[in-house]
Every structure is written in structure tokens, then in C-alpha cells.
Amino acid sequence: MYSNYLTPMAKVSINLATGSLQKEDLIVGIDLGTTNSLVAFINPDGKAQVINDTGKGELVPSVIHFAKDGSLVVGNQAKEFLTTDPQNTIFSVKRLLGRSYGDIAKHRDFFSYKVIDDNQESLVKIKVGDKFYTPIELSALILKELKERAEHALKTPVTRAVITVPAYFNDSQRQATRDAGKLAGLDVLRMVNEPTAASLAYGIGLNPNEEKTIAVYDLGGGTFDVSILQIQNGIFEVLATNGNTFLGGDDFDRAIVDYWIHENKLDLKSLSENQELAQGLRLKAEEAKKALGSQNLFNESLKGIPLAISKQKFEELIQPKLAETLACCQYALRDANLKPENIDEVIMVGGSTRTPAVKQAVAAFFGKPVHDELNPDEVVALGAAIQSDILAGNRSDILLLDVTPLSLGIETMGGLMDVIIARNAKIPTKAGRQYTTSVDGQVNLKISVYQGERDLVQENRKLAEFDLKGIPAMPAGLPKIDINFLLNADGILTVQATELRSGVKQEVEVKPTYGLSDEEVEQMLLDSIAHAKDDVAQRMLIEARTEAEQMAYTADRFLAKNAQFLQEFEILQSRQLLEQLRASLNSGDKDLMLKQVEALNEYTRPFAERVMDVAIATAMKGKQID
User: Fold this and answer.
1) Within this chain, do residues 497 and 565 fall inside the same structural domain, yes or no?
2) Catalytic: which of 218, 237, 543, 591?
3) Do 508 and 552 have their domain in common?
């Protein structure tokens, strides 16, 4: 939590693109999308407008290509390399934000690039050549491209932004998005749920006498959200949200690819080894999906492989995914205590809603025609721009009340989840409960914070853990421990624990361990973008060294304890890799350390699994091994 802010000196500048006088830097609205991203602003006429820099188009593909010489390109140019150099071309990075490998393991074959899987619980890293990147760094590159395009088009500095996120993004993913913005040199003033931003773009509720309940159905390239909003007296209130951060138009493409693989009896192993062909099929599937929006048959070929699919077959293939989105709609309505007939308007958002079958299914579910008048790719960015106008103090006719997408609570005895802030509670909000000790003379209390809807914490997501120390020794049940959760407008959580009898207090802002610290972030902003890169590099070096040391320790113990189960050459090669890993610790090269970690992990995995099988078999016989 920041204790203070540095206030910049006032300045006056002329916007050369619009001719308007500016007292401050422009605030832009950014839609950081899975497939495409874009940036919008409020023009001199007071209208939200998407930025098209020198004819490059409004949409910036969320794709990054790393060339062998170390250079990189983002957007339209990078997309061209999806088929020619897929292993060095990153796409759909939004799906990886704030996620561990365990979260995305079943989707591993979706990515043509290397997603490191050395630890199921660690946040993912992406390997490109001999370098390792986090999703935060990669997202920052996309945001930096948007920032530069906006500055070039508007001829004015852009340092402040509103960034949208899927309504179902959890705390880790929201924090990752904020960190990416700051790393790109943007002061992220607010993060807004995408469906909420879309409702602003449509302007429903701007008439203070209008009262409506609306549903915003947002199906993008990689995420799906549905929000139920109530508009009254110019106030936008989110009654409920639901969705899936791993469901979108990419899944439609994948369904087509799987169909073509089956029809042509393609060898999956060969296909996984031929990333150029795999990506070519994915792009052809995307082309087919778009074409079938206005025609009944798509019939082309790729490298001699016939690629044909009818509109009827396509709609049959995507029916299960469509059903999943409608189930989310049902859950959202249930949470809001509403029925489909209670919804006055249905707004369609996201490029994937262009598919006629999607519109038809949603219209049938809600029993009314859907709104699709605005460009579904642009509405979120336009709404973010309107939100930026509100934050700039130029609009006083709109007030937004968002909700938290998942319940937040702490672990209690027996590993149970005790909810403090319930799912769909309006934010910003504060809630608390009193607890006591369970052991006589207990002076420390471990507080574990979780997010999720299951009764057992082991089924939910752990966000943080800290100790309340210095509790006066008292009999069990006597101490009174007040635990308060404060959830701010960005969905970031602060936890306070206080022993009321003694006044002992502990406070923690819940952030994932990968996140940039507030001090680092503020220093980076003050010292400019150039210093930000150095700060991030230092942090990642420390993380890499820690990971390498842990791997070396674990491998050394494994070899010492299980030598009898290994071949001599396996022990020898493992020892050589272990020494190479230890030698890298003093190199100051985080990529080299991570490369050695991966090499040791990959080599030892097969016989580590073999030893585990022996251990299980021995245990089944009632014996025990060390």
C-alpha cells in the first residue's frame, strides 16, 4: 500500500493531432485481449474513438515474434511469423497471466512455443531460444506497442491508462495485468471488467430516468464472461458475473482443426513435431470460422491436405462450447436471483460473437434479440476510454459498482474455507470476522488467505500466508483476533489481522510472489522506462538463482538416496548436469541458470518417475524403502 505519491509539476501541451489544449497527459482506454488488443481515447468532440496509427488498423494482434538476432516485433508484423517461425512467436499470452503450469497443463499442446513445466505450482515461464520470459514481461511488450501507437497517432505523451480485464480474472491475474502495465511505463489508474466497459460503450443508462437490467455476453478469442448489470439513476451496478478464462474463439478454431485431423487421418505425433503445419492448420481454421459466418461451405487445402467443412458441421462441433457459455449465463442469473425474462437488453461483445450460431443461441436463451450494432472487437476499448474520461473528472453522470468474481476467505481448523468476502460482493468493500486461538499459550497465528468456492481450502487457490506474532500468552479461546479484508476498486486485496486485547497488528497486501513490489514499481516509474528494465532483470536474476539452488539441493539428495535404483551412466550424467547447474549460479546470467535447471529436470524426470513407481510397488507389498 502506498503511503504517499509524488506530484508532478503542472504542464500545458498542445495535442497536434486534434489541435486541443491539454493540461495533463492523455488518459487512454486499453483492451488487452487474448487475440487482439486496441487502444481508444476521448476525442475533442467528447466521443470515444479507437486509435488507428498511420493506417495499421485499429486491432493490434496480441502476438510477439523474437528474431534470431535478438530483435522483436509486436502486432501485425509478428502475426506473419505464426506459420514460418512458430516456436519463437508468442500468442495468447493473456491465457498465461497469473497462472501456474498446473493451471494450464491440459492446454499445453495449444501453444507452439515452450512453456516451462518444471514445477506444477510455480507461475509459468516461456522459453524463446535461450531466454526465459514471464507472461508479465510479454504482456508489457504488447502494452508498450499500444502506448507507442497512441503517442505516434495523437502526437502527445501517454503515461496513464485504464486497462480492462475479464470479469472472471482472479486476484493473481489482475495483479499480473497491473504489473504488466507498469512495466510498459503506464500508470494504471483503474482496471475495469470488460463487460462493464462494454455497457458504457453502448451508453445504456446514461438517461438518469432509465431503469434496465442487462446481460453482457462477452466471447473473445480466449476468454468468456457474462455479467448481469442493473442500471438505475445513471448507476451501473454489477449484480453477478460468471465465465471461464479458458474458453473462447480459439476453442472454435481448435474444434475445426481436430475435425480436419480426424477426417484426413493425420498423425498427431508428426503434427506436434511440425509446428509450421500445426500453426498453418490453426490459421486456416480461423479463416474457415470467419468465412462460415456468411457462406455454407469452406473448401481449401494446405500443403496438399484438403480442408473442407460445412456451416452445419461447424455449428455441430462448437455446440458443446456454446452450451458451456449458456450454463455460465444460467449461473449468473441464479446468483442475481433473476430469470431470462427479467433481462431487458442483451449486449454481444467479443469477435467470436460474430458467429451466427452464437447470436442465435444467446437470443434463444434470453428470449429476445441481441444488441450487436457496435463493432464487437471495439466496444471494450471504447468503454475503457469512457471510464478514463470519468476518472479525468469530465463525466459525473455515471457511477460504476463492480463485484468480486470469487469468494475470499481464510483457512480454519480442519482445512475448511471460512468466507469473509462472498462471491459477487460489490467492490470496493470491507468485511471482517473475529477468531480466537485453539491452543493454550498460543503466541503466533498463521493466517492463510484463499480464493474460491469450495468448502475445503485444498480445492481453492492460495493467495497469501502470514503470521500474526506477539499474541500475549492466554488460555485457548480468550484472545480476540479481528481479521479484516479490504478489497479495492481494482480487485486487489489487503488483509489486516489485529489481536484486540493487546493491539498487536499485522497487515499484508495480497500479491502473488512474482509481482513487482510497490517500491520497485514506483522507482521504475520515477527513473523512466530505461531503469525499469534493469530493475526487472535484477528481480528475475534473484528468482532464477533461488530456483537453481533449490533444484541443485533436491537433485543432490535424490541421487544420494536412490543410487541403487539408477544406472551408472544415469548417475554420472546427472552429476555432470548438477555441476553445470552449480557453476551457473555465479554467472549472473538468469537465462543460463534456468537453462541448466531445465536440462537437469528434463534428464532426471524419466528415472525419477521410475523410482516413484518402485516406491509405490514396494509400499503396496507392505515393505518400505528410504
Assistant:
1) no
2) 218
3) no
300 is catalytic: no
User: What percent of the chain clears pLDDT 90, i.e. is strictly above it?
Assistant: 32
Write down which residue in 376, 401, 426 finishes a domain.
Answer: 401
pLDDT exceeds cutoff 70 at 421 = yes
Burial of 80 (0-12, 13-18, 19+ CB in 10 A): middle
- For 108-137, the pLDDT digits (tens) are 666 777 777 655 556 788 888 888 888 999
Task: For residue range 544-557, list pLDDT tens digits in order.
Answer: 887 888 788 888 88
Using CA of residue 142, residue 144, residue 150, residue 153, what is the dihedral sign?
negative
The chain-wide mean pLDDT, for the chain, equals 81
Q: What is the residue range of 475's domain? A: 404-513
Distance CA 187, CA 165 (A): 16
Task: Say if residue 88 is in the same domain as residue 231.
Answer: yes
194 catalytic? Reply is yes
Q: Determine which one of 31, 250, 372, 378 is catalytic.
A: 31
Catalytic residue among 85, 151, 171, 194: 194
Q: Does residue 94 carry a catalytic annotation?
A: yes
Chain centre to alpha carbon of residue 208: 35
Amino acid at 161: A
- Structural domain count of the chain: 4
Instruction: Return the CATH number at 96.
Output: 3.30.420.40
Domain-embedded: residue 6: no
218 carries an active-site annotation: yes
Give the span between the Cα atoms of 625 and 354, in whole angstroms: 60
What's the pTM?
0.68
Number of C-beta neighbours around residue 486 at 10 A:
19
Catalytic, out of 79, 94, 144, 147: 94
